[in-house]
Amino acid sequence: MNSTLNALRAGLSRGWIEFTLSFRSAQELFGYLYMPLLFLGMAIAFNSTGMADDEGHPIGAVVLSGGAAFFLVMLGVTTVLQVLANEREDGTLLRAKAVPRGLLGYTVGKSVHVAAMSVTAMALMVVPGLLFVDGFGFERWTDALILLWVCVLGMLALAPIGAIIGSFITNPRMGVTLAVLPTILIVMASGLMFPFEFMPDWVQVVGQILPVYWLGLGIRAAMLPDSYAALELAGSWQLPQVAGVLAVWALVGLVAAQWVLRRMARRESGSRVQAAREEAMKRA
Measured on CA atoms in the order 221, 226, 232, 237, is the torsion positive or negative? Predict the structure, then answer.
């Protein structure tokens, strides 16, 4: 069998197995789900006050859609880089290196895992949001399909970024903490936390190059009424551009992540992994 095809199949299987195992660990499950529940609580709180913007749009709906995009970014980047840093330390990456096209399967597996987890977490935000947050929901049944492909494609675009950053982290405890700061800056520059039009022109240009802006735009297109589209920079949801940009980032990211991981794996050896374990025991 073709080694690439075999690696893809193994990656898909690995990702699904890791996804199902996540539900057996209360600590891991809490780490994935506390943020969606937090944003849901904030949106319901804003909704109960009846707060709206100058155009009469409910604030709670905007908060929940922005929170959904923010969560996906944190899941796709910081969670992946943390897992990668930990598995580099415990020798998982070294074992993947020993298998033909093993790093391809590893990358695909992580992407599948976070994509499946993102759909699950989004369901926990969307279903209660439909019931308790005004202005948040599907106007058409096709909006549900839009949300699904935006989430999956967005995670496939973000997971390789997390893998690339994680490949440079040698201390999972300190490295992850330092990596969160640039992730937050990217989120802020992409209009998820502040109105995009209030930012300097150069920030808007940079933000539109990155996948985070388009992920947020796609989620807003799926979950907010069409009247909100007039508030966007182009005055529309630009769904073809959303799909195109996220797809390009996903494909380029997959190739780049494999290249970076291969370079990192060449430097790994049993002695380096053992030294990392001993250093981790000292830190513990």
Answer: positive
Residue 237 near residue 229, CB atoms below 8 Å? yes
Q: For residue 194, give both structure tokens.
A: 């502040």
Give Cβ neighbours of residue 220 (< 8 Å, ≥ 6 apart).
Answer: 65, 69, 228, 232, 237
Contacts of residue 111, defined as CB under 8 A and 6 or more positions apart, other chains included, come to 11, 15, 155, 156, 159, 160, 254
DSSP per residue, 159-195: HHHHHHHHTT-S-HHHHHHHHHHHHHHHHHHTTSSS-
Instruction: Collect all residues with Cβ–Cβ distance below 8 Å to 211 and sequence separation of at least 6.
Output: 154, 157, 158, 161, 245, 246, 249
How confident is the model at residue 80, as a pLDDT?
79
Sequence-distant (≥ 6) Cβ neighbours of residue 12 within 8 angstroms: 108, 109, 112
- For tokens 């290196």, name the residue: 97
Whole-number pLDDT of residue 265: 65
Distance CA 71, CA 66 (A): 9
Which pLDDT score is estimated for 109? 83
> Which two structure tokens, joined as six digits, stand for 137?
């929901």
H or E element in which residue 250 lies? helix 239-266
Parent domain of 132 = 3-283
Q: Report pLDDT for 215.
A: 93
Count structural domains, the chain.
Answer: 1
Below-70 pLDDT ranges, the chain: 1, 53-56, 91, 94, 97-98, 170-176, 178, 194-195, 265-284
Rg of the Cα atoms in the chain: 20
Write down the pLDDT at residue 269: 52
